[in-house]
Amino acid sequence: MKCFNYLIAQGKGQPKKIEENLNALSKHPFGDHSSCSTDWCRFIADPSIKYKSLPYGKPLQDKALQESLTTLFQKYILNSEKLANLGSTQSNESFNKSVAAKAPKNRFYGGSRSLAYRVAAAVAQKNTGHKYTVDVNVSSGLSPGLYTRKLATLRDIQARKRKAVAITTEAKLRRIALKASRNQSSSTFEVREGVCYQSNTMIDTATEDSDEKILEIPAPKNKPVENDSKPDISTMTHIYFDIEATGLGRTSHITQISARRGLETFSKYILPAREITPKAAEVTGLTFQNGSLYLLDKIVPAVGVKEGLTGFISFLEKSTNNVIFGHNIYNYDCPVLYNALDNCSLLDDFQSKIVGFVDTLKLFKLSFPNLGSYSQCKLCDTLINLSYDAHNAEDDVNALFRLVNEKIDNFTDVQKVFQSELSVCYNYVSLKQMNKNVPSLKQMLDDKVVTKRTANCIARSGLNLSHLRLAYSRNGRTGIKDIFSEPCGSKARVTKSAKIIDSVSDFLKEL
């Protein structure tokens, strides 16, 4: 279609040229350039280049399709005289817009002379510009009006500037880019939503496979944009926080939770609902046997997870504008904490009590660059000459409180590493989606269709194998391309890589 529009535009007033180009157009997409012209065909000079608009950059191979196109173009060739003298409706549409502005359709002017005057005003504006108002005043024996003349001149200058800008190459490229974006957006919605309106849509879809039964592919969720004017952390309530858990996984169960606000502290041991891994037991000294929690083989008083989390929320309630400080909390503590809160239906209550988080691992990397290690133990030993019982949440919190208060006096760095609660919650939801969707992509990983990183990205965006199969069944490779490259904030939902899109499409084609 793009080539057809181009040859019509270039052959305006030249029927012979249109005939020659139509003949070439039935061959060009199929790799036959014997009838092409050097004016527009790049393959004559370099046969090795790829097609920009065809799959995999290769020519079409369907001979039946080529014969059909040749037959179709023969009809156009017989009408080359008409094709050479086509006009544009753009000027008519522009005039209609002017008339509609002066005689809106939601008002009835046809019962009086008002309509004729309004249409005449639109005609005068189209022919002579906005200065028609001055000419009408003069011809009627009225003052042209000082401000009327100034405004008419200004409007005409603005119109000439808009016209001059509109015909530049940059403006044309911008219009093409916007049109492509609109088309992709429309195509993506069609792939995600499927058939929403057509004859017998309920009857037809009822007989299709399970993937196509009125199943809508979920839309991507945009990451919350961090406000440039972040809250002043120095005026907020600082809560120092740490947890210990049954393992290193982000769905591990909490075994100890501690927090500190000034001189006030909170600490609880938690009874986990799963076994503590040997590695975690070795590091923390905590073991779980016969329904009791042991620290270095001595039983410690422990509560259920919901009671422990409720106590932590009650601790937070005693202050306002809480900002939670913790070491490496973005990677570990926050996902584990949010998972526990979510499972106990306490997440909304917790979210209402805090403003955001500060990861002190990122903070000290920013404030003290080029240190050998940024583990909390090493930082305490290096910066404040403090040794303590690491991996005990209460001792970790007290050490972190002292470390931050003694060594961090530049709150500009704190502002830089601050993340709002909305942003941290978004990361948790994305991680939850990834854990849910990744198992469905196992075959793609086993067959090395995608890397683990790409599979995680697909799953994190809310897509699983059923969604990919559905997108492919609706629009083939283009369907996969549409949902993968769908805008999500400032980035693509998954990727724009043609290599990955082709690999996934080929895999789905074989299913």
Automatic annotation (TrEMBL):
GO terms for cellular component: cytoplasm. This is Exonuclease domain-containing protein. Belongs to the exonuclease superfamily. TREX family. Keywords: Exonuclease, Hydrolase, Magnesium, Metal-binding, Nuclease. Its cofactor is Mg(2+). SMART domains: EXOIII. Gene3D superfamilies: Ribonuclease H-like superfamily/Ribonuclease H. GO terms for biological process: DNA catabolic process. One of its GO terms (molecular function) is nucleic acid binding. InterPro entries: PML_C, Ribonucl_H, RNaseH-like_sf, RNaseH_sf, TREX1/2. Transmembrane segments: none annotated. It holds the Pfam family RNase_T. The lineage of its organism: Eukaryota, Metazoa, Spiralia, Lophotrochozoa, Mollusca. Residues 237-413 form the Exonuclease domain.
